[in-house]
Amino acid sequence: MDRIYVAVRARPLSPEESKTTPWRTSSNSIYLHNQPTKFEFDRVFGEDCKTVDIFEARAKEIVACVVRGFNGTVFAYGQTSSGKTYTMRGSEEEPGIIPLSVHELFCSIQEEMDREFLVRMSYMEIYNEEINDLLAPEHRKLQIHESLERGIYVAGLKEEIVTSPEQVLELVEFGESHRHIGETNMNLYSSRSHTIFRMIVESRERSKEDDSANFYDAVRVSALNLVDLAGSERAVKTGAEGMRLKEGSHINKSLLTLGTVIKKLSDGVESQGGHVPYRDSKLTRILQPALGGNANTAIICNITLSQIHADETKCSLLFASRALQVKNCACVNEILTDAALLKRQKKEIEELRAKVLNLTIWRRKFLIYGTPYYRVS
């Protein structure tokens, strides 16, 4: 059982802001100057860090685990204008978590010579508590369903079969062109929706002509979720009115639910049989397996160290601190056909018979010779 990995990334400050910032940072802690409270995390990345450093700290291993059949989730959290979208998307000069993960995924697949793979991708946004398909813009107001076979899923969401990083990133670019963004006083291109980019990886052993008897038709199915959350915001600072105010209200409500879920999980409410309000928000409902469930999860908490945003930064750090206490139990997701299950059970029975036979022989030798190793004359 592993806990959620939490890293903090500080957005670069202007020269004026650097002079007045009340925050101090080190390799794994951040604190307010002349105050005893200190926040400690797995890593704290300063203003001069590169996104690839953040990726290699934990996200790279999560991607590798997805190829091996484990679910994985990485998401960026923080107030508006703190650099979440830049961390996830990046730029041509400095690729973000999404393009780095896509390239790493296909590289890892190429190294797995004993397995064959099928990769699918989907891209959705949650805008004003409605789920829209970014790969099929006509698919709007999609509904969340749950089944024993598929778990929690979004019905009607388009999934594209992909074979290369270039194809995936072209589809991501297409999806981004349909995402809801808008201008506020704090951000010229403010994300007005949460986005969830998902890659589903299926794999099975390659069959060999001389090993057909031992070949199992077992399929591993894992999902990699890369989530770019819209930022929490205060209308007083953003100057939001009309539609922007409505968007901000929905964003804050879903982030509040996320914070409540994280707090309850960190307090052990779910393990004690208590209620965790996953269903109060579409965001937490979709991400339920990644929050205290069957997944390797990492949170990148984006903050700004300027004096004017000290309160928002402290709230973000409190959320991140609680997330550190949440534990997941990731396991390989394997689907067995009836034929594969019978083959596996047959092999296990044969192995048990061999053990019983060896034990019987050992006992006979002991009864005859008095020891399994030396004959008594």
Shape: globular
DSSP summary, beta strand count? 19
> What is the string of SSEs from the N terminus onward?
EEHEEEEHEHHEEEEEHEEEEHHHEHEEH
Unreliable runs: 373-377
Percent in strands: 25-35%
Helical proportion, percent range: 25-40%
Number of separate helices: 10
Distance between the termini: 55 Å
Gyration radius (Cα, Å) is 25 Å
Rounded average pLDDT: 87
Oligomer: single chain
Secondary structural class: alpha+beta
Largest sheet: 10 strands, mixed
Structural overview:
The chain is an alpha+beta fold and 377 residues long. It is 36% helix and 26% strand. The protein contains ten helices and 19 strands. Strands 2, 6, 7, 8, 9, 12, 15, 16, 17 and 19 form a ten-stranded mixed sheet that branches. Strands 3-4-5 form a three-stranded antiparallel sheet, covered by helices on one side. A two-stranded antiparallel sheet has the order 1-18. A hairpin with a 3-residue loop joins strand 10 and strand 11. Helix 2 (51-67) crosses helix 4 (97-111). The radius of gyration is 25 Å and the shape is globular. The termini are far apart. The model is unreliable at 373-377 (pLDDT under 50).
